[in-house]
Specification:
8 strands, 50% helix, globular, binds SN-glycerol-3-phosphate
Length: 214
């Protein structure tokens, strides 16, 4: 499964990329706003750092505006994927942008029909949000399983990019379901290496090694 980092913070993106496990990056207007930096500067730094698809989201809510923004974003770097929201105008924009050869990631997907429609409209990636469904007492990963299962009956060529991942369980469940991509905050990625028995075991190995050297 591909791992994307869900961040616009260039320092943590650079750190994550030193691990050699980052296949791409997703940003959204909230993550970019948090940096306090110009969008173009954030994207330029990420494009220099991440060797893979980089999602940059439009803020227009009309198809014409989304297409105009999308063309401008896509022209910044070959790795840029234009992120559009799963609304009717976003479906129109996805169809138009993908027809021009511009890769689109359709985001804010919360039910399977949205994902199937986005795939049909030509999306390269679709982003079902897991954590926000869990937040309202629904089973986000169950929705992803339904979506992945439905798409497997067809050959749209769209990658399911699981987003709003909040913990290790989400990541593992996405892998078990066979999602193509999991986009994770660095705080979750850092949990991938953690287990108390690993830390204790290493401490014991090193202590025994030191004792033996005496
Ligand atoms: O890319 C989408 C992701 O950033 C949303 O995550 O935790 O705000 O639901 P979250």
């Amino acid at each position: 499964m591909k791992i994307f980092i869900d961040s616009a913070d260039i320092e943590e993106i650079r750190e994550a990329c030193t691990w050699g496990i980052v296949d791409g990056c997703t940003t959204n207007p909230s993550l970019v706003a948090k940096t306090g930096r110009k969008f173009e500067d954030v994207l330029a730094d990420i494009c220099e750092t991440v060797d893979g698809p980089i999602s940059a989201e439009v803020v227009s809510t009309e198809a014409d505006g989304m297409v105009e923004e999308g063309r401008r974003l896509a022209a910044l770097h070959p790795n840029i994927v234009v992120k559009v929201p799963m609304i009717a105008e976003g479906v129109k924009a996805t169809h138009r942008l993908s027809s021009e050869g511009i890769k689109v990631n359709v985001t804010l997907i919360f039910q399977p029909a949205q994902g199937i429609l986005a795939a049909k409209a030509g999306a390269s990636f679709i982003s079902p949000f897991v954590g926000r469904l869990d937040d309202i007492g629904q089973d986000g990963m169950d929705m992803v399983a339904t979506l992945v299962g439905a798409l497997a009956n067809y050959s749209y060529g769209t990658e399911v990019l699981v987003a709003s991942i909040r913990n290790l369980n989400h990541f593992i469940a996405a892998a078990e379901i066979g999602a193509d991509v999991a986009t994770c905050p660095f705080s979750v990625i850092k949990q991938f290496v953690k287990h108390p028995l690993t830390d204790a075991g290493l401490a014991t190995f090193l202590a025994d090694w030191e004792k033996a050297k005496k």
